[in-house]
Amino acid sequence: MILLKKPGMQGIMQLRYFEPDHVKVLDEAISVSEDVISDYFSISSNYWVRNPYEVKTLREISSWEYPGEAFAHLVRYGKDITQKQSGRDSRKFYRICLHDHNILDQTSGGKRERLLPFLIYVITHEFVHIMRFSRYFCHPEFNDRNVEEQKVHLVTQDILTPVKVRGLDTVLDRFLPHSQLNKN
Asked: Which regions of the chain does DSSP assign to beta strands (E)?
């Protein structure tokens, strides 16, 4: 276990990692999320071949891939548009980096009945980012990140509202304020 002192906090915070049972729940959440994203955006399984991704837990990511406070974040790998020499060399790759300890803190230590719906929300949220980046050329470095996050929360809410998974309604309620930050 790694001990981490968060900036501005008194004392030391303990980082906790997903256990094998948590990883099984994560695999289930990824499967559900990929299905609902594919249905919502009407994409084929071939889409994921053209836009590959991987999900990494805290134990698997590099220290520079860890920003701290979030439940997860997305890293896009590939060549910058200014370095492209042809269409073939622009292959992009997405890595969803999970912050196990933050997720475990929100799910009573990762109990399955709370972890599954929470991970479905988190993974679906990151998949929505992938869809927006790959299909709509939406990049937060060019746009306001807070506005982008609000839009992604709105779409995630829309995608997951009809999904029938026990506890998901509670998670949707938890994230609802994030989709309404700038509404008048």
From this structure: 3-4, 13-14, 53-56, 72-77, 93-98
pLDDT tens digits, one per residue of 146-172: 888 889 999 999 999 999 999 999 999
35 close to 164: Cβ distance less than 8 angstroms: no
What counts of helices (H) and strands (E) characterise the chain? 6, 5
Within its chain, how far is the Cα of 84 from the centroid?
Answer: 27
pTM listed for this prediction: 0.83
- Of 161, 156, 103, the C-alpha closest to 129 is 156
List the Cα angle 174/177/178 in 5-degree steps. Answer: 95
Q: Measured between alpha carbons, how far apart are the two ends of the chain, in Å?
A: 45
96's tokens: 């969803």
Residues in the chain: 184
